[in-house]
Amino acid sequence: MNEISAPNASKYAQIIEAAVAEFQEKGFAAASMDRISRQAEVSKRTLYKYFESKENLFRSIVTELSSRFAEVLEIRYEKGRDVREQLTELAWAEGRILMLPDVMAMSRMVISEILRNPTLAEQAQGKLDKTASFIDMLREAAADGQLQIDDPEQAGREFIGLIKARAFWPLLFSGTVLSHQEMADTINNSVEMMMRRYGPDTA
């Protein structure tokens, strides 16, 4: 992503929005920088000032999407603190982002493109997968005696999978997002299932 000054942030956002729509409709190979500049209502010179190439523009969208989930990476397990509260906090860090329409639009574009282009898929995967944060929390909670988990990696994937099964995958191509109450129900149910499966009182 290129450095931009605050006064030009709106132009940058316009270009990203136009590029998301263009890539989604035409695919990466057929996408046109000319159409993107027209849709964003900026000159080609401005477009290329921010993004030297179509490849750079696509990578910038992946980086922008990844940066939205930065809050998930910042949450760390706190020894001795109630584990249910911590799991709920981590789930909301993910859930709040999944309630943003522009995040879903970018996700839809990236996923549709990486299905067509394995090279782009490999480049994007590492930046977009935040499962490690869930795995780390569950591993540390188990070491602290608050959960009983033999395989934290599997448990972490189960946890994030419970959230995305309701809040991401069914909505990915519909253009909709969960309401706050729907997300709250999804998170509460997901945390409850994790506690019933891995809580300290489970046999």
What does this protein structure show overall?
The structure is a single chain. 70% of the residues lie in helices and 0% in strands. The longest helix is centred in the last third of the chain and has 19 residues. It folds into two domains: 56 residues, Homeodomain-like (Arc Repressor Mutant, subunit A, Orthogonal Bundle); 130 residues, Orthogonal Bundle (Tetracycline Repressor, domain 2).
In short:
With 203 residues, the chain is mainly α.
Helix content: 55-70%
Q: How many beta-strand segments?
A: 0
Structural class: mainly alpha
Give me the CATH superfamily of the largest domain. Tetracycline Repressor, domain 2
Specify the CATH architecture of the largest domain.
Answer: Orthogonal Bundle
The dominant shape is elongated
State the distance separating the first and last CA atoms.
Answer: 49 Å
- The top level CATH class name of the largest domain: Mainly Alpha
Unreliable sequence segments: 1-7
- Give the overall pLDDT as a whole number: 88
Tally of distinct domains: 2
Number of helices: 11
Rg from C-alpha positions?
A: 19 Å
The CATH topology of the largest domain turns out to be: Tetracycline Repressor, domain 2
Question: Element order, helices and strands?
Answer: HHHHHHHHHHH
What composes the largest sheet?
none
Strand content: under 5%
